[in-house]
């Protein structure tokens, strides 16, 4: 059972950069639920998108799979498909271990391979669905286009990329309002001002967010011509990209 996220509830002498270590794994479901508005909606919709877009005898990828929520969502939508397999990848040993245990706890005819690796090392091939669920933002900006190009090249015609991210906004007033709404969301979910402040410090220079326009530009450069923001809640959202 997931524990309550209290990692930052006491003053720390030094706030280290955020890492997906064993401590985070223990509280990750609670952390996500209380920190990311719309997360459950996005996970549920991944199943709907998979049901429509997955092709028989193809690969589906969950890049930055964490504990496997998107993987399980995809797999639940493959009951009418044949010959599909899911490749789930994360560079955190603790995440991969727990993800593997979670996947194995649910029986399914669709095979899932969970890999511990840098997602930039993965050769995307014969793919019909690729998910980057709050993952790209943790890559250094110079690596993002290369990864998206690899995904585009590995997708089959009609294949989709689901890209969920935290956004920044060029309009200062809108940007501040959406940040304030997100902070209210966290407060309403029980996080103290100390927790919010220390978590923000831990993510500084670790999570580097882009504007929606920057995402669109990068996706188009990678080859995607059809890109749309299908969901947004405050400064979090998800883009769907379709390959011709």
Brief overview, please?
A 7-stranded mixed β-sheet has the order 3-2-1-4-5-7-6, sandwiched between helices. Helices cover 42% and strands 20% of the residues. It is an alpha/beta fold and 244 residues long.
Helix content: 40-55%
**How would you characterize the largest beta sheet?**
7 strands, mixed
Dominant shape: globular
N-to-C SSE string, H for helix and E for strand: HHEHEHEEHEHHHEE
What are the segments in which pLDDT stays under 50 over at least 5 consecutive residues? none
Strand elements, count:
7
Strand line-up across the major sheet: 3-2-1-4-5-7-6
Q: In DSSP terms, counting alpha (H) and pi (I) runs of 4 or more, how many helices? A: 8
Rg calculated over all Cα atoms: 18 Å
**What kind of oligomer do you see?**
single chain
Description of the molecule:
By secondary structure, this protein is α/β, with parallel strands linked by helices. Helices cover 42% and strands 20% of the residues. The chain has eight helices and seven strands. Strands 3-2-1-4-5-7-6 form a seven-stranded mixed sheet, with helices on both faces. β2, α4 and β3 form a beta-alpha-beta unit. It is globular and about 50 Å long. The mean pLDDT is 97. It catalyses: prephenate + S-adenosyl-L-methionine = carboxy-S-adenosyl-L-methionine + 3-phenylpyruvate + H2O.
